[in-house]
Design goal:
Elements: H1 9-13, H2 15-20, H3 26-51, E1 59-66, E2 71-74, H4 80-87, E3 91-92, E4 102-105, E5 108-110, H5 113-120, E6 125-127, H6 133-144, H7 148-151, E7 155-156, H8 165-172, H9 174-181
Parallel strand pairs: 1-3, 1-6, 6-7
Antiparallel strand pairs: 1-2, 4-5
Helix pairs in contact: 3-9, 8-9
């Protein structure tokens, strides 16, 4: 099973078809997949209508602090979160071509706090997909307070629904996550 390697929400959800073969429910899985795709498209179309009334696209930072590696993990596209931003007429800050000063942690690259502040200082919204916002802010709050999203209290994590609920919902009901992403206008 390798749904984690998919780069779109629909492709991740489409694994329902694979699992359905074990239960002889392929027809039902196809129906569920089509209905879910239609819901996602409806939310995306509504977001596009709202976007046309906006003076500019909101900018989104998708980043969290990895305390084990002592660095900031930053969104790189393509990925499911980039698709959410695109479907909601938002610009996500893509860290793919950025400089990372921390490269020795499990083969992954991380930004320093100074780098993430410079990278995301003008983002309108910040999605912090990690369980440690309170601890991270306690440690780096003085530096993070320079960022627009922090100043405007537009930092969002997923803990109000429980530590794993958001990640599970984004797979099973990705149209709901898009709806959560969309109302920032």
């Amino acid at each position: 099973v390798s749904e984690f390697s998919e780069t779109t929400n629909a492709a991740t959800f489409e694994w329902i078809k694979f699992y359905s073969t074990f239960f002889n429910l392929e027809e039902r899985a196809n129906q569920v997949f089509e209905a879910t795709s239609d819901r996602y498209q409806c939310v995306a179309e509504n977001a596009a209508r709202i976007e046309s009334d906006q003076p500019s696209k909101p900018v989104v930072l998708w980043a969290y602090y990895n305390s084990f590696c002592s660095g900031w993990a930053i969104a790189t596209c393509p990925n499911y979160y980039c698709e959410f931003a695109s479907s909601c007429a938002s610009d996500i800050l893509d860290g793919a071509d950025e400089t990372y000063s921390i490269e020795a942690c499990g083969g992954f690259k991380f930004m320093s706090t100074e780098e993430v502040v410079a990278f995301g200082k003008d983002a309108d919204h910040w999605i912090f997909p990690g369980p440690n916002w309170v601890d991270t802010y306690a440690e780096f709050g003085e530096q993070l307070d320079q960022m627009k999203a922090v100043k405007n209290k537009q930092v969002f994590d997923y803990l109000s629904a429980g530590e794993n609920a958001w990640f599970e919902e984004r797979i099973a009901q990705y149209y709901n996550v898009l709806r959560d992403f969309a109302p920032w206008w």
